[in-house]
Amino acid sequence: MDSGNCSACGSRTTGRFCSQCGAPVGNVPASPRHRRAIWTAAGFAVLSVAAVVLIAVRQPSAQSPEPQAADAPGGTGGGGTPPDISGLSPRQRFDTLYNVVMRASESGDATRAAQFLPMALMAYGQLDDVDADSRYHLAVLRLHVEGDSKPALLLADTIQATSPHHLLALMIRGSAGQIAGDPAMIRSAAKDFLSAWEVEIASGKPEYRDHRGMLDQFRERALKTTSSGKT
């Protein structure tokens, strides 16, 4: 595919989907709501989303193979050597690199996380198709590893474009609100999450099964937020 600019965020891209914000390449320009979302939050604190990230890395997608080559002691994938992803599908490549980056970040190896983050973003841009789960994983990378809520919020927009009450999108908004120190965003995400909970969980979306631990934890926080009025 010829290189071009993402119509949603303007970033240079060569894949089917923008590795910066997740929007499909070649689509119509982002709506005003999308553009407003880009500038909703600024300033970040990694510790505020640590609990969500710990669960995220320990609950990889069912499609994700364990990056054993990268983590095995003395293996060729240790240190700065990338895992062997040559025989994997595009989605498996992205999921594997996501796990490598998140495990490095969880262990405090910022150098390794920063080294493999561009590979994970490139793998996302090479996906033939993206779903809510892959967009959520990209948002986690943006929020936790890069500390950047702008593309994460745009990813929430892209999820909600086809599923307005999607719980993963609302978790993105709640986490972005926490690290931005935006009480209004936190309360709004908590309220919308609780309102959508029963219908969305009953829908049986596979990504809800894969991330049920995270969803339950976020729901507990949302209940405390709405009952106490505090964030």
Describe the structure.
A hairpin with a 6-residue loop joins β1 and β2. It contains eleven helices and two strands, in the order ββααααααααααα. Helix content is 60%, strand content 2%. α2 packs across α4, α4 packs parallel to α6 and α6 packs antiparallel against α7. About 22% of the residues have low confidence. The chain has a two-stranded antiparallel sheet with strand order 1-2. It has 231 residues and is mainly α.
Question: Which percent bin holds the helix content?
Answer: 55-70%
Which stretches are low in confidence, meaning pLDDT under 50 for 5 or more residues running?
Answer: 27-77
Radius of gyration: 17 Å
Main β-sheet, spatial strand arrangement:
1-2
DSSP helical segment count? 11
**Outline, from the CA principal axes?**
globular
The N- and C-terminal alpha carbons lie at a distance of: 45 Å
**Integer average pLDDT:** 76
In short:
This protein has 231 residues and is mainly α. The protein is built from 11 helices and 2 strands. It has helices at 32-38, 50-58, 68-71, 90-106, 110-125, 132-146, 149-162, 167-180, 183-202, 206-210, 212-228, and strands at 4-5, 12-13.
What labels describe this entry?
231 residues
